[in-house]
Amino acid sequence: MAFGTGSHPTTQLCLAAIDEFLKPGDSVGDLGTGSGILAIAAKLLGAGTVEGSDIDPLAVKIAQDNAEVNGVEINFTIDAPTGEYDLVVANILADVILDLKDLLIKMTKPTGVLVVSGIIDTRSGDVLRGLCDAGLELIEERAQSEWRAIIFRVQQSNSKMTRFFVQPEQIAGNDVTLDADDAHHLRVCCTRLSARLSPCWTGLAMSTRLC
Fold first, then answer.
1. What is the model's pTM?
2. For residue 33, is it within any domain?
3. Is residue 14 part of a domain?
4. What is the mean pLDDT of residues 124-152?
């Protein structure tokens, strides 16, 4: 069995992000593709080259079957991706995202967009810190129920970012002055929670009953 029918909040968050950030002809990499739903959606939305990978051979087979049912050509593999993509999605788990952060950054083209999800709310801070510290620029964190999707952009410079935290007791009743570097860190790594709930995608045909 392979995960990904479109009903789970993390899948819906990823689908909405793909719909928003994908530009016609963009290349897309889907790490941990499962049923292939995100890769298939990207292709149907006008992506160019789309590649998906999963460590489960059965998931790869199901994803290939689902791509055929939907009339799209996608390269699914159990091998780790070696290319660079305009848009990268990884709907997996927080610990796996952190373990694979170097690969995810390598997969994403300069100024490309990385969407990570499969993150429970209690772990979103860990993922934010890990990926910002690795040099990614935060675009937005989105929430649906207790689940999170976090969207990053790869910076053109190789300098690593550090998140800047202001404690509540520093703000209450005081003027807070930030130097230029701190202001930059605060601006690019602040969390903008979105209250928008992503609609469930029902337009994708699935060849196999998936969990």
1. 0.75
2. yes
3. yes
4. 97
Contacts of 130 (CB under 8 A, 6+ apart): 97, 98, 101
Give the residue from 120, 104, 140 showing the smallest Cα distance to 31. 104
Kindly state whether residue 164 falls inside one of the protein's structural domains: no
SS (H, E, C) the chain: CCCCCCCCHHHHHHHHHHHHHCCCCCCEEEECCCCCHHHHHHHHCCCCCEEEECCCHHHHHHHHHHHHHCCCCCEEECCCCCCCEEEEEEECCHHHHHHCHHHHHHHEEEEEEEEEEEEEHHHHHHHHHHHHHCCEEEEEEEEECCEEEEEEEECCCCCCCCCCCCCHHHHCCCCCCCCHHHHHHHHHHCCCEECCCCCCCCCCCCCCCCC
- The tokens 């016609």 sit on which residue? 24
pLDDT given for residue 81 in this prediction: 86
